[in-house]
Fold this sequence. Notes:
Number of strands: 14
Largest sheet: 14 strands, mixed
Radius of gyration: 31 Å
Distance between the termini: 90 Å
Oligomer: single chain
Shape: elongated
Helix content: 25-40%
Number of domains: 2
Structural class: alpha/beta
Amino acid sequence: MLMSICSKRVYYLVKLGRYRIQNVHVHLKTGDLQLEVNRTLLGYKDFCDVCFNSKENGAAVPNGCDSLSQWFRNGNSDVLNFTATNSIEDVLSVYNRLCSDFRVGRFCWKLFPEELKDRNLKELISTLDFDSCYKVSVLEGEIETEALSFLIDRMNSKIIFRITSEIPSNFKHPRALDFACLDYEDARWVTVNDLKTIRNASNVDLIGRTNFDNDDINELIKYWTECKEKMFTRLSIKLRDGVEIDVFGILEGVISCRSFGDQRHYYLSKKLIQTHSIGSFEVSDGIVMLRSCIFDSQLENMVPILKLLEQRSDLSMNYSELIKKERELQSILESVEDVEEENELEQAINKIEAEKRDVKTKFYDTVKQLKIRRITNFNEYLEPIA
């Protein structure tokens, strides 16, 4: 029993005493094969590359993880080169050895479809471990629908997913936007209905090529501000090439208040205001950015303003409905001949008139409160109601 306990203590001492590699980025491509290693050595953080060069291009240097171990112990920060055959299997082999010899914090797979076109990409993807992977990048070239769908099926929703490769315009997958962080450089296949399915995402970047216009963003914002579930913390979108950003067109029909001193930054009223979150709309460098902002000292004055704006909007809508109803009753009254029915209609019209006066009083009281707060730059102007 004592020997067993001692053996376990020795095992954990050895395990915890291994050098720690903070990040390992595994490049899967032909040609220059490499691992990027971000190391932590005795509390000192550094960044370095561990490159695997083909025999044709690389000089004969010490090979294997024993060399890497010595390199760590010597505190070197230069690039360490390995002589390796021109095969991905070598990279995976050395990666597995790294995980065996060192404490790897997290790792990232980097796929290069264009350079892997001679291989069965699905077969390669099936050999990769995605359970402990924190990020997957698909870089350069073009990736086919079948391979991309297979990759998405293999990944969990906590992964950071980045694609710079060209994606087929007809690509569809129910989980394509179901990741913690997303970056699609080619998002021409993404529709506004696809964006409405996003839930609990941190950051979503669609700032390369898209097919969105101002009306699409307006539709998305209206859905987002009414949605009772968390969709995203930040969403950045570039509009279709040739489409200029129309701030007032995008915010048409949206309850919003312009940020003081910033012509292109607005705060939006959201259903999530009940859960201490309001919306933010901003335009920067041709990119539309939507954010969910948690209440803090900087926003404490904005929340009551947005609530007043929402109240004003509701009163204005209520007033319009009363006018419509009054006109309908007036039209009916003109054709009524029965005295009793005529009296009932007149009473109903008088009741509506009283309701209109009450709504108008509340409306101007709301406007007064907004003016007291010196709010004059609304997206929806404070026009009086008749």
